[in-house]
Structures are given as C-alpha cells and as structure tokens.
Amino acid sequence: MDSYDWENIILNKEYKHPDHPKCYCDSDAGVTPVLMTAYDRANIGRRYYACGNIFEGLNCDFHQWYDHCEIVSPYIVEEVRTLNQAYNRAVCDIMISSDDNMKLRQRLELLEESTHKLSKQFDKLSESYRRSECENLELSNEIATQKQIVKQLMEEKQKTIEDAAKIEFKVTIERITH
C-alpha cells in the first residue's frame, strides 16, 4: 500500500491501481483505467474503474466495480450524502454571495454615477457662485463710484445754491442801494 499515490486518491485525480483491470482502450493506446467514486443515489460512495480517457472525452465506456459487490457500507453512504449536502450548501452560499456581490456592485456603480453627477452640479454651482461674487464685487464698486459721483454732485449743488444765494443777495443789496 505504500506505493499508492495517496495525494491523487484524496484529491480524486486519476489514480491507477497496481492491480487495475484492462479497459477496451488499453490494448490499443496503453490507456489504463482510473479508480473513480460513484455519486448516483443507488451507488453513492462506491468505487469503480473507468476508462483512462474519461477526462479527455474519448472514453470507451469501460466500467467495472472496484469492490465486486452490490452492498456499500451505510456509513459510507451517509458520509457521502452529508458531504454532498455540505457541498451543495456551500455552492448555494457562494451563489448567494455572488448574487449579493453583484447587487452591491450595481449599487456602487449607481452611487458612483450619482456622485459624479452631483460633483458636476457642484462644480457648475461653484463657478456660478464665483461669477456672481465677481459680479457682486463689480456692482459694489460701481455703486461706490455712483455714490461718490452723487456726493460730488450734491456738494456742487450745495455750492451752486450757496453761490446763487450770494449772487441774489448782492443783487438785492445793489437794488436797494441804487
């Protein structure tokens, strides 16, 4: 038994038993049968030989039971069923996780798209605000200039009124004195 390749047996890779039978391909191409495990309900866990070309899709449909008996230990059957159920649950969990992951990716894409749109809107509003600030500054400067002009005009008006009053006073005094 020490000469067996236990890693291949455990990993259920092609395992060639030293006392293997000959398959229908064996004499033609030197193909040796491989030891496999059945997973159908009637023979679950039962070992059998299959054509060595089974993985290449060129097999000759050779099949021979390894144990040469029809009875498989109930313990083995139960263990294989338990393992199959655990495998099926794991596959379902992976599929659910993959589905959840896909949904999360879709939500992330939507959020990224929304963020991009909001960023563009923010940039537009920022530019508009900056322009309005510049316009407000220009308007503030224009208002200050207009206020200065109005002040000057008011001062000139006041001076003109004062000058007119002085002239009228002089004219009135000259009329009285003449």
Question: Briefly, what is this?
Answer:
With about 180 residues, this protein is mainly alpha-helical. The protein is about 65% helix and about 5% strand.
Structure description:
Residues 1-15 have low confidence and may be disordered. This protein has helices at residues 6-10, 26-29, 74-177; strands spanning 34-37, 47-50, 63-65. The protein has a 3-stranded antiparallel beta sheet, with no helix packed on it. With 178 residues, the chain is mostly helical. The radius of gyration is 50 Å and the shape is rod-shaped. Helix content is 63%, strand content 6%.
Tell me, rounded to a whole number, the average pLDDT. 78
Number of strands: 3
Fraction in helix? 55-70%
Number of helices: 3
Query: What form results from the Cα inertia axes?
Result: rod-shaped
N to C succession of SSEs: HHEEEH
Task: Give the C-alpha Rg.
Answer: 50 Å
Indicate the structural class. Answer: mainly alpha
The residue ranges in which pLDDT falls below 50 over 5 or more consecutive positions are: 1-15
Spatial ordering of strands, largest sheet: 1-2-3
Distance between the termini: 155 Å
The biggest sheet, with number of strands, parallel, antiparallel or mixed sense and barrel status, is: 3 strands, antiparallel
Q: Report strand %.
A: 5-15%
Keywords:
178 residues, mainly alpha, three-stranded antiparallel sheet, rod-shaped, disordered N terminus
What is this structure's SSE topology?
Elements: H1 6-10, H2 26-29, E1 34-37, E2 47-50, E3 63-65, H3 74-177
Antiparallel strand pairs: 1-2, 2-3
